[in-house]
Amino acid sequence: MEEEMRFNTVMAALVVVAGFWFGLGYLLNGDGAAAGFGIVDPAGYYVVKGVRDIAYGLTALILLLLGHRRALGWVILADAIIPIGDCLAVITHGGTVGYALMVHGSAAVLVLLTAGLLLRETAPARLPAPQAQ
User: Fold this and answer.
1) pTM
2) How does pLDDT run across 71-113, given as a tens digit for each residue?
3) Domain boundaries, the chain
4) Residue 63 · residue 75 · CB < 8 Å
5) Distance of alpha carbon 100 from alpha carbon 84, whole angstroms
6) Rounded to whole angstroms, how far apart are CA atoms 92 and 27?
7) Which residue blocks in 1-133 are alpha helix, DSSP H?
C-alpha cells in the first residue's frame, strides 16, 4: 500500500510539473510552444481556453460538492492568477486599461475575496461531550 501511495504521489507531482512546464513555455516562448501544440488555425486556441476554464470550474465544483472548503479556498486563491493574468494580457496586447480592469480586474477581486472568505472559515464549534456522573 505504501509503495502504491508513493507511486501515486510521484505521478501527481509529474502532473503538477507538466502544468508548470507547459504554462511557462507559453509565457517564455509563446511561438515555440504554440508550434509544438499542433493547432494551425488560431481559432483553435478558443477551444483550448474554453476547455481550461471548464476544467478549473470542475475542480472547484468537485471540492465544493465534497465539502473540502479549505482546499477549495486554496485552489480558488491559486486560480486567482487566471483573471490577473487575463487583465495583464489585455493591457499588454492592445486592450484598454479601463476594460481590462472592469472585466478582469473586477473578476480577480471577486475571486480573491471568495478565497479569503473560504480560508477564514473555521470548523464549527463542538459542544463538550457529556460527562458521566
Assistant:
1) 0.78
2) 999 999 999 999 999 999 999 999 999 999 999 999 999 999 9
3) 1-38, 41-122
4) yes
5) 9
6) 13
7) 2-28, 30-37, 44-66, 69-79, 81-92, 97-100, 106-120
